Amino acid sequence: MTLVLAILSFGVASAQSSSDEQNDKSVEPFAEIDIMPTFQGQSVEHFCYWVMTNVKYPKKALKQGAEGMVLVSFVIYPDGKMRDYEVVQSPAEVLSDAVIDVLEKANKLKDGWKPGEVDGKPVKVSFTIPVNFALASVVA
Fold it and tell me: Which residue range forms the structural domain that includes residue 52?
């Protein structure tokens, strides 16, 4: 059996100015974000690739035969940290946990996220990304 793991990026959902309370989970949409957040100086697509290369298919999920797409949303705050994780869809909790673990790992990186900006001010930006876990049989 081989393991196939794929990830794609969905676009920005919304943003909120940095003057809002850090623990305020509401994210009001802006018409336009002047500067998009970057991860390690690159686009969100790079972050998706980083997640794909760092997420591990849990042994428990392999034993259970669990596979499918985990859809997770998060907010990049003006301090460059991700918060407000929400698993929107998941075939198994063990897969959701694996994705959240990788997001937490990204938060510990020194060169992680640089926040987005509107009118020269850092803003909260919300993203939703899918992480697809798939088991594929290999014909001998």
Answer: 2-136
